């Protein structure tokens, strides 16, 4: 299916990467004739694709929560390089198994797309906030006649864009194939399909329906399964290499920075380890686990920066990134970094806690570090306002008291960018890591003596 000469499907038997499920397209292939009559191709520069966001308001998800999810979906689209121009929401008891939305809402979206086309403003795609089944994708595309993405395919696209190392690229490619496998049929709707019935032609409705469609599906399915087997073998080899690397790191305590995506984990790692890991104010800036040796006073330990979590994180990604998330599983201490300036940071904490429970890490020693205190804002209530104060009405001092009382003081409030309260964080890390070190390695000599400048031994 194409529109205005722009084909947006790629054969699943080809290379899978940004081209297979890309949310944006910077160039468009144009065809023409050269001076000698031969066919030639050239690229016409294009701006970022425009996107429409779609979400549902259900009894389990009120309008405020839906708008927050769409805000995050818009941030994902921006990270992928798309520009959001419109949002659509619908109140339903739950998503339709056939078209996700009601048919009336789909017609309303189609009318908006046609109006934009008449005004010569092309709509590049429609992005849905939930994962869509193959049937839903097929029916929605037939109605809207534009590229359709769901939350999972958008996240996969960002991961494919961010992957730099062979390890990350292999993990992302495997996740893409897992996502694509049950959705192959919609890629070949332009081919005929074989009908049912016996070989003698006695089957009802089988006449004139035999064609290459099913054969192509079987071929692509076989190609993908073979490719997935190869990728799984590569990941098994990578997993063994990672295990060997972890065994060769010596007898040091391992501390892992975990948290929601874009909360400042990489910035904090750069600050503590005095390194220059890539950090950016976009989602999933870090895909590969980075491990650095950190020394606080006389205590060395290993600090790792891990991939960030997100709401509705695709299961395929969790499975594919097993070797990366093993750093979390094998950590002795988890430092849960939270963006306190985010209006829904408590929901983010619950998402991370649930993901850690799914990984089997819920029982690990853990501390919470509230980052970005410099960006925290609050609304002061009027004196004559007698309504109950909400979370938005709490000052930073009140919020600190609330959380420190709830966690028995086992939390800190810092700003990694402004270096606020970093010395206190180092003191707390030193005490916790030293306690774990003495328990795990009672006869280890890594805790070297600390000397004064005059040469006298202090400890």
For this entry, give a set of tags.
459 residues, alpha/beta, Rossmann fold, 2 domains, 6-stranded mixed β-sheet, 4-stranded parallel β-sheet, 13 helices, disordered N terminus, disordered C terminus
Summarize the structure in words.
The protein has 459 residues and is an alpha/beta fold. It has 2 domains: 2-26 and 47-162, 3-Layer(aba) Sandwich (Rossmann fold), CATH 3.40.50.11060; 251-440, Rossmann fold (3-Layer(aba) Sandwich), CATH 3.40.50.300. The chain contains 13 helices and 14 strands. The strands form 4 sheets. The protein has a 6-stranded mixed beta sheet with strand order 10-11-9-12-13-14, with helices on both faces. A hairpin with a 5-residue loop joins strand 3 and strand 4 (39-45). Helix 5 runs antiparallel to helix 6 and helix 6 packs antiparallel against helix 7. The N and C termini lie far apart (73 Å). Residues 1-45, 190-206 and 453-459 have low confidence and may be disordered.
Would you summarize the structure shown here?
This protein has 459 residues and is an alpha/beta fold.
Percent helix? 25-40%
- What order do the strands of the largest sheet run in, or round the barrel if closed? 10-11-9-12-13-14
Stated plainly, the CATH topology of the largest domain is called Rossmann fold
Question: H/E series, N to C?
Answer: EEHEEEHEHEHEHHHEHEEHHEHEHEH
Beta content comes to 15-25%
Segments where pLDDT lies below 50 for 5+ residues? Answer: 1-45, 190-206, 453-459
Quote the average pLDDT: 77
User: What CATH architecture of the largest domain do you see?
Assistant: 3-Layer(aba) Sandwich
Cα shape: globular
Secondary structure tally: strands: 14
The biggest beta sheet, please? 6 strands, mixed
Instruction: Return Rg in Å.
Output: 27 Å
